[in-house]
Every structure is written in structure tokens, then in C-alpha cells.
């Protein structure tokens, strides 16, 4: 089926080119519902604005729900020019761009507003430039919300303080910074792919995991998890990128349309992410009816930050190259400024 879709999208691109139109084939891994998830809130808004402002000279064809493959495969197809736009998770981007790991610095932000300021400011610009310089064949245009802050769930016991993590086996992405963070708070990190997680929780291979509230809800992880602790310890946005060859081929006005659409779509995605996080049908109120829920106190947040952040920072400084260290310095500086403001 995926081969048929790939052949179809290639022929569609040739047909549009014959009429002088530019086609952006945009793939992502979420449902095609602009109000259900921040990924398509971004993608749908981007498509609408680009097509309207270009008077149909730029067409955005959507391929949601992993129709063409996983987000790792989407990135590979983007770089080869098979598709022209995609949203990439931090974990998938880390395979091609290892410095992405630096964003897994735990307990970095006091609020969503602080996180948005950092990603929209000098750090976001520096990270995008370094990605482009490293990968060569992508144009990074923004960092849309992937679902908000992370929280922990587990099946063993309520977690209200640092000591409660002792001995709990927690699934992480295959990202060393996440593993260091989990081990530093007394839990046991167990790297596992997303596709294996639900079964792993069912079978007791892991006791718990960490994800944004919307992900916990949509994936129905409450069916295998009894306890939810709202920690807001990580914020890892998507990377929105386009194929560089396609981007370089469009004119300056079309690039301004792309930039305006990206900014508006980022705002839309963030709004949907925040709405879902607090909604009665998918957010914290919904989960609180299905799990024993505790919001971490500021005192315990500080205790966890005090043990986890230095551990991850040390790892990044010891294992990262000079570019990683420079980016980390900018990241920390911008985090401090944003937290002071918000």
C-alpha cells in the first residue's frame, strides 16, 4: 500500500508541475483532525494559509497517520525529495542529528510561555541553523508543539516525592539524556520504542513511562497505568522542516508566504495542545477520572531538578562536541531569561 501511495504522489507532483504549480507533499504521524491533535492543527492551518495566499500556485498535499511510513522514514524521504515537508519528533531527529539530545534537559521551564519564548528566540534560531549546516538538505522553519509538557505514569504506587521513584522501571526513548535523567531520580531507565510501549506496560516489562498528557489520553495508557504524576519535566517540540532543494527553488514572496503560514500554524498547534491538555474529554480532567492523579509540589520539583539537571548537563558537556557545548550554553542562557520573565 505504501509503495502505491509513493508512486501516486510522485506522478501527482509531475502533473502539478506541468501546470506551473509547486506541490508540497506534507507527511506526519497523526490523525487528520485539526482539533484532535497539535500536529494536524499545525499542518491543516499551514496548508490552508499557503494555498490561499498563493492563489493555488502552491498546493499542500497531506499524508497523515503514517501513510508513507514512520516519522523517521518521513525525514529520510524529505531529505531525498520524495516528500517536501514533515514534522519530526525529537527522538526521530536525534538519529540523524545527535545534538538534538540537548533539549532533553529536565525541569528546564517554569511554564509553556517560557518554553515558547526560548524556541521562538535566539536558541531556536541557533539550533535550526546548526541542523541545516549539519544535514545540508533540509530547511528548518519552526518548532511546533508536540503535545505540551511530559508527566510520569506508573502501575506500582503514587509518586509524590523524589524517593517514590526508587526501583520503578520507566520506559524512555532511546535517548541517553532521558536515560540519565530517569536513573538520576532513582528509577530504572528502560529504552523502548513507542510501538512496543503499550504491550510492554501490559506485560510488566516496564512499570511506567513519560509522555505529554494528550499522548497518555489518546494512547489509552490509563488502561495499564494506575498512577499519574504531573511533573512538567520535559518539553520537546516537533521540528518542522522542508526539503532544501524545493525551498530554494521558490521565489521570495512564496518564501514569505511559507514563513507567515508557519508562524500562524505554530500558534494554532500550541493553542490546540493547551486546549487538549485541559479538556474534559482528553486532558487532565479526563485522566483524573481514570487514574490516581497528583501534581508535583514546587518543593519536590526543585528537588528533582537538583539531582537530574546536573546529571544530564554533565553528560552533554562530557560527550558533546564543541557545537553541542555552544548550543547548550545558548539554551541555558535563554532558559534563564525566559523563566525570569514568565
Commentary on this structure:
This protein has 342 residues and is an alpha/beta fold. The chain folds into 2 domains: 2-146 and 236-277, Bacterial extracellular solute-binding protein, family 7 (D-Maltodextrin-Binding Protein, domain 2); 150-235 and 283-341, Bacterial extracellular solute-binding protein, family 7 (D-Maltodextrin-Binding Protein, domain 2, 3-Layer(aba) Sandwich), CATH 3.40.190.170. Helices cover 51% and strands 15% of the residues. The protein is built from 14 helices and 11 strands. The strands form 3 sheets. The chain has a 5-stranded mixed β-sheet with strand order 2-1-3-10-4, sandwiched between helices. A 4-stranded mixed β-sheet has the order 8-5-9-11. It starts with a helix and ends with a helix. This is Tripartite ATP-independent transporter DctP family solute receptor. Belongs to the bacterial solute-binding protein 7 family. Residues 1-20 form the signal peptide.
Tally of structural domains: 2
* CATH architectural label of the largest domain: 3-Layer(aba) Sandwich
What is the terminal-to-terminal distance? 48 Å
CATH class descriptor name of the largest domain:
Alpha Beta
The CATH superfamily title of the largest domain:
Bacterial extracellular solute-binding protein, family 7
Strands of the biggest beta sheet: in what spatial order? 2-1-3-10-4
CATH topology tier name of the largest domain: D-Maltodextrin-Binding Protein, domain 2
As residue ranges, the low-confidence spans are none
Instruction: Tell me the series of helices and strands, N- to C-terminal.
Output: HEHEHEHHHEEEHEHEHEEHHHEHH
Amino acid at each position: 500500500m505504501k509503495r502505491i501511495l509513493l508512486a501516486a504522489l510522485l506522478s501527482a507532483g509531475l502533473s502539478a508541475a506541468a501546470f506551473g504549480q509547486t506541490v508540497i507533499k506534507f507527511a506526519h504521524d497523526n490523525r487528520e483532525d485539526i482539533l484532535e491533535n497539535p500536529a494536524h492543527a499545525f499542518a491543516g492551518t499551514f496548508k490552508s494559509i499557503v494555498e490561499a495566499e498563493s492563489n493555488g500556485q502552491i498546493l499542500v498535499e497531506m499524508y497523515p497517520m503514517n501513510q508513507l511510513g514512520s516519522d523517521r522514514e518521513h525525514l529520510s524521504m524529505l531529505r531525498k525529495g520524495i516528500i517536501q515537508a514533515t514534522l519530526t519528533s525529537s527522538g526521530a531527529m536525534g538519529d540523524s542529528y545527535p545534538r538534538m539530545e540537548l533539549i532533553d534537559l529536565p525541569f528546564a521551564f517554569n511554564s509553556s510561555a517560557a518554553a515558547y519564548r526560548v524556541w521562538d528566540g535566539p536558541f531556536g534560531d541557533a539550533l535550526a541553523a546548526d541542523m541545516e549546516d549539519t544535514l545540508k538538505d533540509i530547511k528548518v522553519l519552526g518548532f511546533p508543539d508536540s503535545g505540551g509538557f511530559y508527566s510520569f505514569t506508573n502501575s506500582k504506587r503514587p509518586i509524590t516525592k523524589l524517593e517514590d521513584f526508587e526501583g520503578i522501571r520507566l520506559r524512555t526513548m532511546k535517548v541517553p539524556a532521558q536515560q540519565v535523567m530517569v536513573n538520576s531520580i532513582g528509577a530504572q531507565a528502560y529504552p523502548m520504542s513507542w510501538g512496543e510501549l503499550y504491550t510492554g506496560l501490559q506485560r510488566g516489562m516496564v512499570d511506567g513511562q513519560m509522555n505529554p498528557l494528550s499522548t497518555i489520553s489518546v494512547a489509552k495508557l490509563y488502561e495499564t497505568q494506575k498512577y499519574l504524576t504531573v511533573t512538567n519535566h520535559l518539553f520537546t517540540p516537533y521540528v518542522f522542516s522542508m526539503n532544501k532543494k524545493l525551498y530554494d527553488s521558490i521565489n521570495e514572496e512564496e518564501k514569505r508566504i511559507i514563513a507567515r503560514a508557519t508562524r500562524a500554524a505554530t500558534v494554532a498547534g500550541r493553542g490546540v495542545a493547551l486546549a487538549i491538555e485541559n479538556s474534559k474529554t482528553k486532558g487532565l480532567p479526563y485522566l483524573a477520572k481514570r487514574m490516581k492523579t497528583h501534581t508535583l509540589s514546587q518543593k519536590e520539583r526543585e528537588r528533582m531538578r537538583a539531582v537530574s539537571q546536573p546529571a544530564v548537563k554533565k553528560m552533554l558537556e562530557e560527550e558533546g562536541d564543541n557545537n553541542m557545548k555552544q548550543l547548550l550554553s545558548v539554551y541555558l542562557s535563554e532558559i534563564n531569561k525566559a523563566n525570569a520573565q514568565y
